[in-house]
Design brief:
Blueprint (H helix, E strand, L loop, with lengths): L13 H15 L3 H9 L5 H13 L3 H14 L4 H13 L4 H14 L4 H13 L3 H14 L4 H13 L3 H14 L4 H13 L5 H11 L4 H13 L3 H14 L5 H12 L3 H17 L16 H7 L4 H10 L6 H7 L20 H8 L18 E11 L2 E13 L3 E15 L2 E16 L3 E21 L2 E23 L2 E23 L4 E25 L2 E24 L5 E26 L2 E12 L2 E12 L5 E10 L22 E18 L3 E15 L1 E2 L6 E2 L3 E16 L2 E14 L15 E10 L4 E10 L2 E2 L6 E2 L2 E11 L5 E8 L18 E9 L1
Antiparallel strand pairs: 1-2, 1-26, 2-3, 3-4, 4-5, 5-6, 6-7, 7-8, 8-9, 9-10, 10-11, 11-12, 12-13, 13-14, 14-15, 15-18, 16-17, 18-19, 19-20, 20-21, 21-24, 22-23, 24-25, 25-26
Subcellular location: Cell outer membrane
Pfam families: TPR_19 (PF14559)
Main location: membrane
């Protein structure tokens, strides 16, 4: 994205100096044939050979570039020109910017006043996501040559990447004043206009393209500006031109993936995302120029997920996981990994992955609701939707925006509500959520979260004699949080999050009992206030061979319950009252430290040590894992976990090289130990199979039985789960997926000794097909079969059942209208539930949304 320049050597003669200067200018204008001609007129020297290496790389002649570099290594092994050529080979051909950085630092030590070397060093630092070091190198170069246009142009582009628009524009205007036709100035000012949503962006970038037709970056920017202006044909032409000019830039296929998904072209999105992933991996690049999107996660996972290929999505996200990438962290919150039964334990998603992603990139608090912006620019999008089921009606309003005040600010606001009535039960739910974030250049940023959930449920039942039984509940939860990160040094961050949730609940019930001499009315009134505080302080850093993480977490839950029971004899009016007050204060702390070590391209190790203090007891734990690629297209992973507080809402890493133990409902003193093994294999470019086995030792579980007074709390249980999963990309926007899962779970001790755990059938099978068409029509059809299950009654089991679910979606071409129809349990088969709760049947829901 930035301009490079060869070294400026002390030439042998004045004529050589003139020829080399002319060659540099010709190279900057894209006239590579003239560069070659001019270099041929200069007497052989390390400077000329190094310039020739740059030319060979620009012409995609890797063999010549390596041959010339070997000549330099023999003729001038310790010169700055040799080091610069070696760095160019490492960065451009070997995909090794780490080595390139090391070589360029040595070269700068030899020639500390070389603006060209400092410029090249800055480009490599930027490629490694080292904006502080990149800016420092560029500003040091400007101390030597304050008016160097190449260095000024690269500094301006870096500032644009960091959302420092005003500073970048000032540099662009300075360059334009010095040279009214400057490509560097026009590129900077055009991109600044694009990021400020200025309609003049397209015209400015047209001038930049005319000044430098051979620059892929100009075509990318002009393509983006053309799309914003509504000229999609010109936009696509420019993106195609950029792909021809620089076929190895991963940003170009990332853009192709974004545009393909915006057009509902699933196949094209998958092809482009795979190409981008290959280039990012080959050249060790981050793709950070395209903003993270918390609605989509990583490109390849999002592309596969658009047609329901959850196995491919997980595999690609896990293989490309970057602990310091907001996109990777957002993907963790969306992936489907492993599940048992219909409502049983699973390891899907991770709620706090969004918090971790926002800490790294607060500006991802908002995202576009129609078409994706390739570069962040001011916007306000609104979506209003309604949804209707057989017994309920719901609606929502969602607002997303981005502005510069003058700091960049991203914000999202959502209101939703549900009203449902089934028989004598009325249920209302209201939700609101605000997320806002800002960024302070390269150093970091902060975000804030505010939310409220309010649910009211009431049920009335006439019981005769003019009496009515009543059950009601009122549950209100308010949440607030503040988080962010501060960049200590390159790829090293201090992370913070502090949050508080206050929950107020009230449950009231009235019932009656007839005795021989009395008619009794029982009034039960329970009010509970719960305040939960969480503070998380973490440190994350990356070095040349791996990634370190460490942190401290504090959790405190203060619960105050007041219960009153009135018993009234309706014959004589006498009332007896009982009161109870209970205060519980539960505090836990966690400290953790871990390392992910990249041993070689085929082998990765990961370990994490934890210590939890729960109710005064210290529990040591940890995780260890290994990932190995035995052959291309194969991946073998193994992990072991001991967790002394598995129910904690932690911001510590939850995956071990992509493996996550199944999640169960734990009491406050729950404990977990587990081992997991997974093998994935690609079959061609379309099929993927995965085999995963987990064995878990569980302590102190708790299950909701539907009775607020009685819960089911197994003290200890064991479970072994094995699954075979398969995905097949059929093409034409269609994907096929299936899984067969066997679980063997056993409760140890108590009345249900040796019984399986709730919602863990011995066998679960599912088969599904998903599709997405350019017309905007998409959806999926899924069949799920579960064998006999735990019933909640000793010696009895719930029957096996086969159900079919269908989802149909449609979106208008301009994405302003979206509609959907969802049918769960299409054939209305009764799905029995444990503890004699009412069986569930068919559920029908229609959705409609309008976007502005």
């Amino acid at each position: 994205s930035k301009a490079g320049a060869p070294l400026r050597p002390p030439p042998a003669t004045a004529a050589d100096a003139d020829a080399l200067g002319a060659a540099i200018i010709a190279g900057m204008s894209g006239d590579l044939d003239r560069v070659q001609t001019l270099l041929g007129t200069i007497a052989g020297s390390p400077a000329v050979t190094e310039a020739a290496v740059t030319l060979a790389i620009l012409r995609d002649d890797a063999a010549l570039a390596r041959s010339l570099t070997r000549e330099l290594e023999q003729s001038a092994p310790e010169s700055a020109y040799t080091l610069a050529a070696q760095a160019n080979i490492a960065a451009s051909l070997d995909g090794d910017p780490v080595t390139a950085r090391r070589l360029l630092k040595r070269a700068v030590e030899i020639v500390p006043d070389s603006t060209s070397l400092l410029n090249e060093l800055a480009l490599v630092e930027d490629e490694l996501d080292h904006p502080l070091e990149a800016e420092a190198a560029l500003r040091r170069a400007l101390e030597i040559e304050p008016d160097n246009p190449v260095v000024l142009g690269n500094l301006a582009v870096l500032l644009l990447d960091l959302e420092r628009i005003a500073e970048a524009k000032a540099i662009g205007e300075k360059l334009l004043a010095a040279d009214p036709g400057s490509y560097l100035a026009l590129r900077v000012l055009g991109r600044a206009a694009l990021q400020e949503n200025d309609p003049a962006a397209q015209q400015i970038l047209l001038r930049a393209l005319a000044a430098q037709p051979a620059a892929a970056e100009s075509s990318i920017l002009l393509g983006a500006a053309s799309q914003v202006a509504g000229d999609t044909t010109r936009g696509q032409q420019e993106f195609d031109a950029a792909a021809r000019l620089d076929p190895n830039d991963p940003i170009i296929p990332i853009i192709a993936y974004i545009n393909a998904l915006d057009a509902n072209q699933a196949d094209e999105a998958i092809v482009a995302a795979r190409r981008a992933a290959d280039l990012l991996n080959r050249y060790n690049r981050t793709g950070a120029r395209i903003a993270a999107d918390r609605s989509s996660g990583t490109p390849l996972a999002d592309a596969y997920g658009s047609i329901g290929l959850s196995g491919w999505a997980r595999y690609s996200a896990d293989r490309g996981f970057d602990p310091l990438s907001a996109g990777s962290l957002f993907a963790e919150g969306q992936l489907s990994r492993l599940s048992v039964g219909r409502a049983g334990p699973n390891s899907d998603g991770f709620e706090n992955a969004y918090i971790n992603g926002l800490r790294l990139d607060p500006l991802s608090a908002s995202y576009r609701l129609r078409y994706t912006d390739l570069f962040r620019r001011p916007f306000t999008d609104v979506e209003i939707g309604v949804s209707s089921g057989e017994n309920d009606l719901s609606g929502y309003l969602s607002l997303h925006g981005f502005s510069r005040l003058p700091l960049p600010v991203a914000y999202s606001l959502q209101f939703s509500g549900v009203n449902s009535r089934e028989s004598a039960t009325i249920d209302t739910l209201r939700n609101s959520l605000l997320i806002a974030g800002t960024q302070f250049g390269a150093r970091g940023g902060v975000f804030a979260v505010l939310g409220e959930d309010h649910q009211e449920v009431s049920n009335t039942q006439p019981v005769g004699l003019g009496l009515t039984a009543l059950e009601s509940s009122d549950d209100r939860a308010r949440t607030g949080g503040l988080g962010g990160s501060f960049r200590l040094s390159e790829r090293s961050f201090l992370m913070l999050f502090a949050g508080r949730t206050r929950r107020d609940t009230r449950e009231f019930s009235r019932s009656f009992a007839v005795l021989d001499t009395a008619l009794l009315q029982f009034d039960f009134d329970a009010q509970t206030e719960t305040q939960t505080d969480q503070i998380s302080l973490g440190w994350q850093t990356e070095d040349e061979t791996g990634f370190w993480t460490a942190g401290l977490e504090y959790f405190d839950e203060l619960q105050t319950s007041n219960t009153r029971v009135d018993v009234t004899n309706l014959f004589n009016g006498e009332t007896a009252t009982a009161f109870d007050r209970l205060v519980l204060d539960s505090t836990s702390k966690r400290v953790f430290a871990g390392r992910r070590q990249y041993v070689n391209p085929s082998l990765t190790l990961e370990g994490l040590l934890t210590a939890d203090r729960v109710e005064g007891e210290v529990r040591a734990g940890g995780r260890a894992g290994v990932a190995w690629t035995p052959a291309k297209g194969q991946w073998l992973r193994a992990a072991a976990v001991v967790d002394g507080n598995p129910g904690a809402v932690t911001l510590a890493p939850v995956t071990i090289l992509g493996l996550v133990p199944l999640r169960f409902p734990y009491q406050n003193d729950g404990e977990l130990s587990a081992v997991a093994l997974r093998y994935d294999r690609e079959i061609g470019s379309r099929a993927l199979i995965g085999v995963e086995v987990q064995h878990l030792d569980l302590r102190n579980l708790t299950y909701d039985t539907g009775d607020p007074i009685n819960s089911f709390n197994p003290d200890r249980a064991k479970a072994t789960v094995a699954t075979l999963q398969g995905d097949y990309w059929l093409g034409n926007g269609v994907g096929l997926t299936g899984a067969l899962t066997h679980s063997d779970s056993r409760i140890e001790g108590g009345v249900f000794d040796n019984s399986p755990l709730p919602e863990m059938p011995d066998w679960t099978a599912h088969l599904g097909v998903g599709w997405l068409k350019p017309s905007g029509f998409g959806g999926n059809l899924r069949a799920v079969w579960t064998s006999k299950r735990f019933s909640g009654v000793p010696g009895q089991s719930l029957p096996s059942v086969l159900t079919f679910d269908a989802v149909l979606t449609w979106e208008s071409r301009d994405k302003r209208i979206a509609a959907g129809l969802e049918v769960l349990n299409l054939l209305d088969r009764p799905v029995a539930l444990p503890w004699q709760m009412a069986a569930s049947g068919r559920e029908l829901r229609a959705n409609l949304a309008v976007r502005f």
